[in-house]
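Shapes recur. One chain:

:::
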Amino acid sequence: MRILFKFLIFPCLLSAQVDFDPDLMKERFTKSMTIDEPYKLTWLSKKRADVKEGKIIKKNHISEKFYPGVKRDYWIYIPSNYDKKKESNLIIFQDGEGYLFSKTFQAGIALDNMTHFGLIPQTIGVFINPGDKLVGEKNIWGWDTSNRSYEYDSIDEKYANFLVEEILPEIKSDYNITENPKKIVIGGISSGGICSFNAAWHRPDIFGNVISHCGSFTNIRGGDRYPQIVRQSKKKDIKVFLQGGENDLNLVVGSWPSKNKEMAESLEFREYEYKFIYGVGGHSNKHGGELFPETLIWLWSD
């Protein structure tokens, strides 16, 4: 059964129709997310007996200003040798539970090891989940039950300002966090990838580094426009890491491999400091997990 959806094209408010087969889309999602990939975690993302584990604290937040009444969980990572007298770097991951606890990423263990061996400075991690209920417009699929797509795929400044005004004050009240955007990383996968780029694009005064794994620079909520926006806009002071794969999604809203290549070309055109690693993977964080330690070391290499 094919479905016709009416939606608004950003930012023109022009009515259009999208014709797609939901069963075929689910089939392609499943295939891309479960494809065999040659990527494995490196030694820096595996537990070591000689390395002390950092502390992980679970928190929850109820938004008051930007997404009223929306609840979410987030986790704070604190290195084992945390010294409040020292200013800490900061890394923020969207879909944080997956980055922290999935077998294919293990961000907390990687931060333990990189800190222990002096590869990164003292770093606080924030691993934040999307909101629990939708308070905005549904996306093109019309399947939204959480606030994830509304928060992550929208290309305005709302989610960036939510982090800056609602989440970061909570973190900074308990930990000594840098004010230098070059020492702050924001990252995510899929819609969380474009979300992270979007946050840095709108608030480069806060977020100076981006990690995008399989970023959804496609027309879910207008994100397909970003390659052209980057080309036509004055260069911003951000550093960008993009990861994509040749077996990533190809759907009615666009091709993830093609749009990530296009983003890389636009960053090259505007002479950004960026890396684009393109492999054979699908829509998963397996390649990103393998690359994570070297990604973070590169971003903070200045």
In short: The two ends are 53 Å apart (CA to CA). The chain is about 30% helix and 25% strand. The chain has one domain: 3-299. The CA atoms of residues 63 and 69 lie 6 Å apart.
